[in-house]
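Shall we go through a protein fold together, starting from nothing but its sequence? Label the sequence line and the structure token line clearly, so we can match residues to local backbone shapes. Would you write everything just below, so we can both look at the same thing?
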Amino acid sequence: MGWMKDETGLEKNAANFVPLTPLSHLRRAARLFPDDEALVYKSFRKTYTEYYERCTRLASALTKLGVEPGDVVATLLPNIPAHAEAHFGVPACGAVLNAINTRLESDTVSYIFGHGEAKIALIDSALIPVALEAIEKMDGPGPKIIEVPDPVAGIPASGDHMTYDDLLATGEPTFDWVMPQDEWESLALNYTSGTTGRPKGVVYHHRGAYLMTMGTAVSWPIPRGAKYLTIVPLFHCNNWNHTWAAPMVGGTVICCRDITAKNIYDAIADEGVTHFGAAPIVLNTIVNSKPADRREFDHIVEVFTAGAPPPAATLAAIEPLGFNVTQVYGLTETYGHVTECVWQNRWNDEPDEERYAIKARTGVLMPMMEDITAMEAESMSQIPMDGTTQGEIMIRGNSVMKGYLKNPEATGESFRGGYFHSGDIALQHPDGYLRIADRAKDIIISGGENISSIEVEGVLMKHPAVLLCAVVAKPDEKWGEVPCAFVEVKEDATVTEEDLIAFTRERLAGFKTPKKVIFRELPKTSTGKIQKFELRQALKEGLAE
């Protein structure tokens, strides 16, 4: 297939074939941009020379603690400099980075420590109690704790464990990085948020992460010297691989520990932030922020949003504030975002309402991917691109995981038919652009009719009193299921259940309107996704009010 008749002497060799890895980005940046700021966290400021040296010392120090290539090093850290350094330093000694969700309770952390077989764990001082509880619940000895205090946030060390700075001091600045011999080697282990049962361990390879950084730089785009704010947690698809991408362009990674509107505005005004990724809930926080928390800035901030389709109302409200939002979509299993809503010039003259509706589409495949489309899940046949037929989003390309750790059955099931089965239900427009209708499990089937919870939420979000909402299926004797809306109201607003039902009835078919509205705070994951399964559970148990 495609070979020339005589290829004698045309073999791969060290000069013409190098395994792809994001580690190469930082090695190059240390040479090209030695004095540029690489890593910033308020008073903590490091150049590329210093960043590279700290990552090198970390790799060396881990080796001295007995970490060998293929071993797992876990983290339980917020978005602080040590976490960015771990993204290079851990794989630079050949180990696999397992960044664990900082909001998990000790039982799940214990399961992840055991399942991933972490040898060392870098733990934020504030999370030491959770880590100790998790280790106590394990059968074996558990990982050795290295404590990471955060003086910038006023969080001191407990004094009971070796600290991160002490660890770095034991490392050699001349340590020779352990680069992958094969780009298929494992780089990172990320546990899915496990809405049902135990979370699954998703394994990334060096090649996928490298190509993810390249595709992101093309799509976003990320210019030379970009100032990137870490709002997406570093444990969430490794911050969508953005921290690995920044050194390509000599960019600055600016750490943000606590995600508030004030901290975001301060970073934009004080540090000149140009780019960040965030869930729609964060955009909502910015839109509804108090005037006192806002700061003036005179440039456009480029934003990738994902995690749930952003309501058109949120996009319409945030853009005039100086943010250009692009919707992207992906999963833990795809290293983060793999589709983007690529803007077409033909849409420029559309009325605002239509433009924001288009911007809320899930979009089309990014350049490092091969094919992303919607199919009928059983037959694996392409659905009609008519804007109404629904199918499952199927994904194929280089930024798809190796599989689930120690779970060949689930891996095989998710790759059936040569595509990764996302579990997300979408329709496709005639131009091929996808629009997520729902997670397969969030579709409401009422009297045989499919109702997209996202569509109903999009309408509710247009009501001026609604801060946040989630629509789930409520069991119903007559219809099987009916839509039930959970709503958080804006601080100074008042609205009744009747108001909201009437508001949606004016804009939606009768069967799609919520039959009940419950006012309460919504349960959220660490990345701002609303936990609908908890709301469904509360309805089942009659505890929703």
